[in-house]
Specification:
- The structure holds 2 protein chains of 2 kinds.
- Helices cover 0% and strands 51% of the residues of chain A.
- By secondary structure, chain A is mainly β.
- In chain A, strands 2, 5, 6, 10, 11 and 12 form a 6-stranded mixed β-sheet that branches.
- In chain A, strand 5 and strand 6 form a beta hairpin.
- Chain B is 0% helix and 54% strand.
- Chain B is globular and about 40 Å long.
- Classes of the chains: A mainly beta, B mainly beta.
- At the A-B interface, strand 5 and strand 6 of A face strand 5, strand 9 and strand 10 of B.
Chain lengths: 113, 114
């Protein structure tokens, strides 16, 4: 079955600390992978995406993610977290020219000053 | 990317009534989607709305409960019919950009059913 797992429901970090949010997927076709962020009361904003090529992708707001096919993972990282990064983060998977995205359950990030 | 607006941004409704949510995009798109995000949950796709054809519903969602219109390439509506408190959710529309093969989301409509 196709699925996306985000093992961490809630993560708390101090401002300035590094961050890694985990995402594992199970998908029959070649995956297209996405990270979205949802700030309180807001819609989803695309942080970054991976389709092919370099397995380390850069996104907005200083985020990056690394695709590891052998581990079926697409973890999101940021070297230094800012208080404004506090939000809900969703990993999603689709495939070429598909209309459907499968979302993980999300990770809520809390940042302490 | 895409500029997507939704109306209303939030509403509080009585049980048994219906609410129509509007989604407007700043440019023409073929595929539009409607998602539901229940409190504390992830996003679940309700249906895909293509202009000129009937919407395609995902398992667990039916047209009688969630009728969708797609009159043109920039607009769609989702109606939540005969509402119950279990329908309290955020409803989001999204569009698929073929050029980037990426979905972009609207700000969502927060619905509370009493």
């Amino acid at each position: 079955a196709q699925s996306v797992t985000q093992p961490d429901i809630h993560i708390t970090v101090s401002e300035g600390a590094s961050l890694e949010l985990r995402c594992n997927y199970s998908y029959g076709a070649t995956p297209y992978l996405f990270w979205y962020v949802q700030s309180p009361g807001q819609g989803l904003q695309l942080l970054l995406k991976y389709f092919s090529g370099d397995t380390l992708v850069q996104g907005i707001k200083g985020f990056e993610a690394e695709f590891k096919r052998s581990q079926s993972s697409f973890n999101l990282r940021k070297p230094s977290v800012h208080w404004s990064d506090a939000a809900e983060y969703f990993c999603a998977v689709g495939s070429y020219n598909t209309d459907k995205l499968i979302f993980g359950t999300g990770t809520r990030l809390q940042v302490f000053p | 990317s895409a500029v997507i607006s939704q109306k209303p941004s939030r509403d509080i409704c009585q049980r048994g009534t219906s609410l129509t949510i509007q989604c407007q995009v700043d440019s023409q798109v073929t595929m539009m989607f409607w998602y539901r995000q229940q409190p504390g949950q992830s996003l679940t796709l309700i249906a895909t709305a293509n202009q000129g054809s009937e919407a395609t519903y995902e398992s667990g969602f039916v047209i009688d409960k969630f009728p969708i219109s797609r009159p043109n390439l920039t607009f769609s509506t989702l109606t939540v019919s005969n509402m119950s408190p279990e329908d309290s959710s955020i409803y989001l529309c999204s569009v698929h950009r073929s050029r980037t093969d990426t979905q972009y989301f609207g700000p969502g409509t927060r619905l509370t059913v009493l």
